[in-house]
Specification:
Blueprint: E1 3-7, H1 15-21, E2 27-31, H2 34-41, E3 47-50, H3 57-66, E4 69-72, H4 81-91, E5 96-100, H5 107-115, E6 126-131, E7 134-140, E8 144-148, E9 154-170, E10 179-181, E11 191-192, E12 197-201, E13 204-212
Parallel strand pairs: 1-2, 1-5, 2-3, 3-4, 5-6
Antiparallel strand pairs: 6-7, 7-13, 8-12, 9-10, 9-11, 9-12, 9-13
């Protein structure tokens, strides 16, 4: 599958992890100030999109010199820079998007970024947000997915937009068998992988899935 990697303008918790997550052939896109992450990592995004209120004139000039396409939008707009970047990725025909730097100090933007994958306009995209040891993605109605990790990893399933019906899981310490996770309740939080692969399915509703990998001990 063709994939886009979008750098947002939030906190980039692990720069080396971000660099390692990029595959050959990925399309790199920066949402406004996310381009600064690219410059720090020595990467050149193919496209920088936004109103450019988070980038200096010198940074914009450097991005242009490196060959990045600058797509400027007015400051008064209805969409955030990250949503513009996601729509741009969709227009390129990608099917998968990895977002880096989507979380940060502002709760309004963090929550909006976490909910963006639920947009009906972006439903054709498989979107994952990576933040250090945490991966965040959406499980939609009638989907079946596999979560690959390691025994002991944490996996939380949080209902969005109402109750999640017909939730079934395999490979988790607390299995579910076609059950309901109620909106606003915490039953699905902090489950644990009992194998390297867990399987999830959902009949109706949507789930915010948070996969937290175990921190590796520092051998040095």
């Amino acid at each position: 599958m063709r994939r886009a990697v979008i750098f947002a303008n939030g906190r980039l918790q692990d720069a080396e992890q971000a660099r390692a997550a990029i595959r050959p052939g990925d399309t790199l896109i920066a949402a406004d100030g996310g381009a600064r992450h690219c410059l720090t990592l020595g990467l050149t995004p193919e496209t920088v999109i936004g109103d450019f209120d988070s980038l200096s004139a010198a940074e914009l000039a450097e991005l242009q010199r490196l060959g990045a396409q600058l797509v400027r939008h007015p400051a008064h707009k209805d969409l955030t820079d990250l949503e513009l970047a996601l729509r741009h990725a969709k227009g390129l025909g990608v099917s998968e998007v990895l977002i880096l730097g989507a979380l940060g100090a502002r709760w309004d933007q963090t929550i909006a970024n976490l909910l963006l994958p639920l947009s009906t306009d972006l439903s054709s995209l498989q979107i994952t947000i990576l933040d250090g040891p945490q991966q965040v993605f959406i499980l939609r109605a009638s989907q079946e997915i596999q979560v690959r990790g390691e025994t002991g990893d944490t996996l939380s399933l949080i209902p969005l937009c109402g109750d999640a019906l017909g939730v079934s899981t395999q490979g988790l310490e607390y299995p579910l068998h076609g059950e309901t996770l109620f909106f606003g309740a915490t039953r699905g939080v902090s489950n644990v992988l009992t194998a390297d692969t867990a399987r999830l399915s959902l009949a109706s509703g949507s789930l915010l899935c948070v996969h937290i990998r175990q921190e590796k001990p520092n051998s040095g």
